[in-house]
């Protein structure tokens, strides 16, 4: 759990009072300052005051009762104010404990924040996408297994795979590199259920799959030798926030390893122009949904801005010649279905655009399956060391 | 016949982890509650479906129990805490010395967790101006953690609280 002392902060702009960390005082006197801050925040607030407990790892009854009293008292003296308590589905006890306040006072509403972390998550959470995710990992693993040791992967380490998806990367890493411990975290319950099922079928019991929000994890500070986060910063609307969390849980001297794409650089021959047009449009489409699938080459900047040193960036090209070209084609088909079939429709694109958009994917498949063709999907792998 | 003897035959609870220490040492630092609950939660949760979240839940419940023993225990004697597992449940067995008369208090508080008005009492307690009593803490465990709580009678001055926590089902 969070080892840092607890934090209580008020953001007047958003009228949000946040609690974070572990709050287990022996007496109310120990948290008197925070209670006073909380009272002042309520005095200052107009309309709705948000009480954010998403990062509240622990709160004992003494503190819960004291802070609840302040809210309940305010409800009785101020009919003009309402409270929205924002809990997290990750920290389950907060939801169970705070919900009672809404039963006591109708001015208090309790909301569970759980499904809006990644704007793109809903697009890839569909279980029909799982076989493609497995194929993608199989294709990238051929490259990553060779380059990972340069980024800090070695036997016996303690590692975390954040945004682990269906968990196949963790399984491959476990087999190839034998880390001492792997924590694999994701915010998709469907993906985690699949991951656990696969692990069970393979008799793997030592990967700790955990449900969590990558931008606000329950994991302690400074505990992993290596933190991996693959293809995720690019589909997160605040990659710097996510990177900050990866930095936090990494040990000083440990490394954070990220992979991301630059989708507009997907390529193929023949029919290069059509392919290039479509992937340029893919980048614009993701941008519309607040995701940056052009992030790959920006990895160095992101890592530097997050405080890492000894930054190492490299790229590799997954191609139709890496294995079975049909695998490559299957992945592109899945992309076409999600990007052109779902995302473009949701953006409201006209039929003519979607047809041209689809054609580029079909041409990419054509290139992949052509006996003399070449189809590529470039990926940037980068890591940085957390300073000692 | 005491509460323990009244329990129907049940599947065996496997021992997982236990600690025992001088009560005086335990009472010397409030942080022991947090440290012990965090450590024990992490240890016993490692092979649960979601170790991190299970640990978070379990630590929360165990800390409350340890705080009860901290606030209500007497310095002579030893505190012992053992955790057992049976399927999706963990059982916490917490024994500690307490002042004369407190056994009766705990007996009544535990009995109230089984009454139909437990939730109403809990909401009343949240609404009241008083801080949380030991009774409220036990109600909290029963209501928010679906805990089954009972006492195992021991010769005074010791008391043993047994709490069954079906957290695996809640977490996963």
Automatic annotation (TrEMBL), chain B:
<keyword id="KW-0830">Ubiquinone</keyword>
<dbReference type="GO" id="GO:0008168">
    <property type="term" value="F:methyltransferase activity"/>
</dbReference>
<dbReference type="GO" id="GO:0032259">
    <property type="term" value="P:methylation"/>
</dbReference>
<protein>
    <submittedName>
        <fullName>Ubiquinone biosynthesis methyltransferase UbiE</fullName>
    </submittedName>
</protein>
<keyword id="KW-0808">Transferase</keyword>
<keyword id="KW-0489">Methyltransferase</keyword>
């Amino acid at each position: 759990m969070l080892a840092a002392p607890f934090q209580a902060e008020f953001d007047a702009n958003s009228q949000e009072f946040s609690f974070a960390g572990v709050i287990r005082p022996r007496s109310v006197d120990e948290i008197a300052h925070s209670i006073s801050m909380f009272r002042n925040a309520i005095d200052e607030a107009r309309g709705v005051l948000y009480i954010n407990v998403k990062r509240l790892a622990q709160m004992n009854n003494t503190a819960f009762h004291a802070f609840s009293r302040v809210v309940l008292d305010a409800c009785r003296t101020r009919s003009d104010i309402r409270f929205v308590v924002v809990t997290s589905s990750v920290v389950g006890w907060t939801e169970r404990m705070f919900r009672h306040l809404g039963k006591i006072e109708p001015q208090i509403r309790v909301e569970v924040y759980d499904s809006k972390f990644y704007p793109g998550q809903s697009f890839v959470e569909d279980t029909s996408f799982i076989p493609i995710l497995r194929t993608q990992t199989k294709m990238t693993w051929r490259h990553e297994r060779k380059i990972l040791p340069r980024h800090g992967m070695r036997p016996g380490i303690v590692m975390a795979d954040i945004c682990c998806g269906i968990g196949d990367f963790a399984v491959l890493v476990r087999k190839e590199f034998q880390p001492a411990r792997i924590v694999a975290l994701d915010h998709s319950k469907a993906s985690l259920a699949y991951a656990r099922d696969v692990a069970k079928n393979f008799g793997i019991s030592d990967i700790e799959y955990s449900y969590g929000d990558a931008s606000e994890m329950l994991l302690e500070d400074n505990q992993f030798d290596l933190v991996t986060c693959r293809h995720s910063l690019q589909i997160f609307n605040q990659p710097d926030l996510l990177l900050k969390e990866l930095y936090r849980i990494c040990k000083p001297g440990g490394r954070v390893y990220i992979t991301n794409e630059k989708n507009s650089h997907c390529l193929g021959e023949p029919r290069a122009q059509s392919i290039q047009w479509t992937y340029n449009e893919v980048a614009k489409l993701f941008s519309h949904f607040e995701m940056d699938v052009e992030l790959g080459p920006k990895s160095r900047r992101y890592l530097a801005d997050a405080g890492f040193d000894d930054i190492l960036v490299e790229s590799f090209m997954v191609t139709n010649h890496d294995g079975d070209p049909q695998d490559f084609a299957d992945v592109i088909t899945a992309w076409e279905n999600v990007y052109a079939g779902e995302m473009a429709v949701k953006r409201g694109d006209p039929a003519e655009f979607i047809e041209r958009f689809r054609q580029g994917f079909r041409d990419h498949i054509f290139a992949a399956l052509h006996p003399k063709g070449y189809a590529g999907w470039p990926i940037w792998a980068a890591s940085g060391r957390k300073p000692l | 016949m005491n509460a323990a003897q009244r329990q129907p035959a049940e599947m065996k609870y496997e021992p997982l982890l236990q600690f025992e220490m001088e009560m005086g040492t335990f009472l010397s630092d409030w942080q022991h509650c947090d440290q012990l609950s965090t450590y024990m939660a992490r240890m016993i949760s490692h092979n649960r479906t979601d170790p991190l979240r299970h640990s978070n839940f379990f630590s929360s419940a165990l800390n409350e129990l340890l705080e009860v023993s901290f606030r209500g225990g007497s310095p002579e004697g030893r505190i012992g805490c053992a955790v057992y597992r049976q399927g999706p449940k963990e059982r916490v067995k917490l024994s500690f010395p307490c002042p004369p008369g407190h056994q009766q208090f705990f007996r009544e508080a535990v009995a109230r967790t089984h009454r139909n008005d437990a939730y109403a009492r809990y909401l009343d307690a949240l609404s009241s101006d008083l801080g949380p009593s030991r009774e409220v803490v036990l109600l909290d465990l029963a209501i928010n953690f679906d805990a089954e709580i009972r006492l195992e009678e021991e010769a005074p001055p010791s008391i043993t609280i047994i709490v069954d926590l079906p957290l695996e089902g809640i977490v996963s």
